[in-house]
Amino acid sequence: MKAIPSRTAPTFSFPFCPRSSLTFSKPLFLSPLPLSTHNPSLQTPGLCLLVQNPNFTCPTRPISRASSMAAANPSTETKPFSVLFVCLGNICRSPAAEGVFRDLVKKKGLDSKFNIDSAGTIDYHEGNLADPRMRSAAKKRGIEITSISRPIVPSDFIDFDVILAMDKQNRGDILEAFDRWKERDNLPAEAYKKVKLMCSYCKKHNEVEVPDPYYGGSQGFEKVLDLLEDACESLLDSIITEKSW
């Protein structure tokens, strides 16, 4: 039987793989051709040419390292600014704050730039809609409250840029939770600085806390909405200024 002469394994250089090449360690036999030659729909541009002609160089468009890195790691400029409002049970004040802030953001056409949510320091009302009295009072002002109660969780300290507590007790409970979770959940050491009092943004009112209206009358809910509208307007303005939107 006549011996089949061996062929030198070719080396293919790919422009999109700088400083590297692809070498086949075994002799390359070019027949039969790949399945793709029998079915054009399975062909990959340049692949068959590479197989049939080792000297063929596939034209490529240079890939920018910066653009590829940007695609893999979205910049902070495109990441939505995340705001979390927190009260005790997440059925009165914090869902109202969420609703008020959403309404303001929507009116300015900035929906895509924000991630807005609310939570409670306890899970007693988890899964429930906001208090119907609060929803009714807000609706009279054209504000819809649709959030579902949930407790604050460790990941909130990572996911949100600012955490607004309705009163000092809420703030204390949030910070206490952070102290419990920071080592167990490997939270950023400086994340506690995200926690602020809601009324610290008020410009038209002197109150330092948003009072809990749960055990009060209708006037209590109106007062809460007055404070939240004031604080949320100032909060939004400060974020817009900071982000130059």
From TrEMBL:
Keywords attached to this entry: Hydrolase, Protein phosphatase
Annotated protein name in UniProt: acid phosphatase
SMART domains, sorted: LMWPc (SM00226)
EC number(s) stated in the UniProt entry for this protein: 3.1.3.2
PANTHER family xrefs: ACID PHOSPHATASE, LOW MOLECULAR WEIGHT PHOSPHOTYROSINE PROTEIN PHOSPHATASE-RELATED
Family annotation (InterPro entries): LMW-PTP (IPR052995), Ptyr_pPase (IPR023485), Ptyr_pPase_sf (IPR036196), Tyr_phospatase_low_mol_wt (IPR017867)
Active site: C87, R93, D212
Family indicated by similarity: Belongs to the low molecular weight phosphotyrosine protein phosphatase family.
Alphabetized GO MF terms: acid phosphatase activity; protein tyrosine phosphatase activity
Domain annotation Phosphotyrosine protein phosphatase I: ranges: 81-238
Domain of life where this protein originates: Eukaryota
